[in-house]
Design a protein that fits this description.
The chain is of the alpha/beta class. It has helices at residues 19-31, 46-54, 60-78, 84-107, 111-135, 162-177, 204-214, 248-256, 267-272, 327-337, 370-377, 404-411, 438-450; strands at 7-11, 35-40, 140-143, 181-185, 188-190, 196-198, 219-224, 245-247, 277-281, 289-293, 302-317, 342-347, 351-356, 381-395, 420-422, 428-434. It has two domains: 7-225, Acetylglutamate kinase-like (Carbamate kinase), CATH 3.40.1160; 303-450, VC0802-like. The strands form three sheets. Strands 3-4-2-1-7-9-10-8 form an eight-stranded mixed sheet, sandwiched between helices. The termini are far apart. The structure holds adenosine-5'-diphosphate, aspartic acid and magnesium ion. Magnesium ion binds next to loops. Magnesium ion (MG) is lined by residues 12, 202, 205.
Length: 454
Amino acid sequence: MTQSRFTVAKFGGTSVANFEAMQHSAKIVINNPDTKLVVISACSGVTNLLVELANGITDSSRKNEILSTLRDIHYSIIEHTSNKTALAAEINTLIDDIATLAEQASLSSTAKITDQLVSCGELLSTHIFTQVIADMGHRCQRFDIRPIMRTDNQYGKAVPDVAVLKALALTHLFPLCQEAIVVTQGFIGSDDEGNTTTLGRGGSDYSAALIAEAVNANTLEIWTDVPGIYTTDPRIATRATPIPEISFSEASEMANFGAKILHPSTLIPAIRQHIPVFVGSSKAPQDGGTWVKEEVDSSPLFRALTLRNNQTMVTLQSLNMYHAYGFLAEVFSILAKYRVSVDLITTSEVSVSLTLDTTDTSGKAPNLPAAAHEELSTLCKVTVEQGLSLVAVIGNKMGQTKGSSRKIFNTLEDYNLRMICYGASQHNLCFLVKQDDAHQVIKDLHRDLLEPEY
Ligand code: ADP
Ligand code: ASP
Ligand code: MG
């Protein structure tokens, strides 16, 4: 591959929500001649509507209402573009596919149909965005990523094959980027049988990072609706501020622990390939943003707070655990057998608490499969609780700094904390709280740890 500079730019749903947003985003692309490849999400709100259809709607008036909303969202953009007839034909074909799949889903909703349905959002938006860039006088080409973004067949949370992507990108994608600006889909891929898969909600960030790695890009830009990564979600704490520079390890912890701004896996390819990542606002690129890189100048004790809702906590209690060996091995072999992915874990002499992974397309709290529950119940008492949120304090050397946990727990003395994980990483301390308390917990911690004037 050539050594010239190569930027991959990713635009999220709000950055392609309507014609005006698409124009802002297209300007960012054409203003940087290094940007040869663009990865985009579905127009804002579209994936949620498609998920609703995929869950199986029997009420035909709601189904028709969604179909006409989807048509309106896309038609209202192409109204401003050239080549309307061809674009309208592409949109109609995809809306017809959506209607057929929604019909199937209302008879029997499966993860496979869900992925086919939700992928239509990115397939639609890429048709239109390609035209918006072309209308600004630049050669631009749409590329269907599915044949090269090969994944396994875990629909809703498919795992990409990095080696295959690299090999296929070299032959199929990289050469196109030398001739035109290429626009492709985030979030979607295909399995070995050619069925469409998705990488989990918010997965376009991850797609963009994987593609940046595959084409050997020098920079990955994630353009969104906020000017960078903030000290916490600015929608929750209005006093949150953007972080100009953050290390890969801190930002990875933030992504893993629920900062919606980046999909949890986004930084893995960037770290592997040493690709600096810029996060900025497509509406206000002049406001700057956050650089995520290997080395940064400052490493504060408390850097940021994250929140992840819809947690399912499973507690396993058994007196047989007391001074015994092999109990945890048995538990985990049962969980592995039912492909239950575990997120956090804490243990005491007679009980183990764990939370279940929440990265699939549904956005709901994950359930412990009934068969796994039954088999675990032969070993121990199993309790499942929902309505919980995970809060994480992200920072540096918290375990080595006297007084840091006291500061955190002083703030939290009025809350009921369910599961505290501390020590496994130098960069975070996390715990579960009732979902109803979570926003206030974030506000209180932000005030005490991250607002210097307090
Ligand atoms: P996109 O559609 O561009 O991928 P997302 O909605 O997935 O955008 O992510 C951007 C949103 O992430 C912001 O609007 C903000 O509410 C939320 N967010 C959560 N945590 C943070 C954080 N630490 N910094 C900035 N934004 C955050
Ligand atoms: N459109 C997908 C979603 O809403 C992927 C993404 O936005 O990253 O989850
Ligand atoms: Mg996102």
